[in-house]
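Subject: LacI family kdg operon repressor structure
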Amino acid sequence: MSEHAQRATILEVARDAGVSKTSVSRYFGGERERLSRDMQRRIAASARRLGYRPNQMARGLKGGRSRLIGMLVADIRNPFSIAVMHGVEQACREQGLSLMVCNTDNEPALEREHLALLAGYRVEGLVINVAGRPSRELEALAAQGTPLVLLDRSLGDFEADVVGLDNARAIDSALDHLQAQGYGELLYVSEPTAEASSRQARLARFREQLAARDLSGEACCLALDGNAPALERAVAAFLDAPATRPRALLCANGNVTLAVTRALQSLGVPLGETGLMGIDELDWCALVAPGITTLAQPTEDIGRTAVDSLLQRRAERERPAPPRRIHYQAELIARGSTRR
């Protein structure tokens, strides 16, 4: 960094942009909406040219605002988490906020540690994809005035805004498609549901709809890590059992779709005659012949809406509204894996 960039000040930015020092302060202090778009562009250009970087920690100590949004994800390796995180980060950046991400690896103890860490940084809002049941910790954050949004998974004993997929409608859409393609015997494959309300909702809807639609089927719930042989045996048992109608496998999320695809390839099962469909659209699904049918979640919109909800909650502090549930619809992407 140049010597000039190191000593650039808010006053120099103001002079270079031809605006007041107050306007620059508003731009970097979360009040950009009070400035014209032309003024915002000039300030941004001058800051880049001069190498100006505001001291956000100092601003937080002075004004009581950290400009940080916290995000807690249950599994950062999950493609869904990564895709939603992108939407959250984009929305934060547009609002002059920075995103601080913590990964819990689906460990409730680590989740509690990260919540304490984020509270210490005085985050201005928290988007959380829960791994356990941290209701007590979340209640403490809410009591301090921190807006909270639950992502994808809700908690029975803690009320907050929830943003995610309409799980019941997603299962209905999947079954509509499979039935229309002539499949009548189904195996629903999911990771364990105990700590994830979204998994519970999808499994419950699948079981409920089997009888309502005159379908035959069963569910298989198992952990994926190190369980490839067990999954392969479960898939083989389903395919080897006597059947009177065409069979298909419905996968509860992207990680399951990948694991089931590997199992089918290992068993030498061609896709299409045996159907395969997954919730979550992943890049590789179009590359595995003949293409895997999916239900795509609008992950960018989900992430952006989570941030919008936080900002709305912050604006409503004096007169808070009841918790909101914002559910998005999945988009069917039909490919060869469900074409008989």
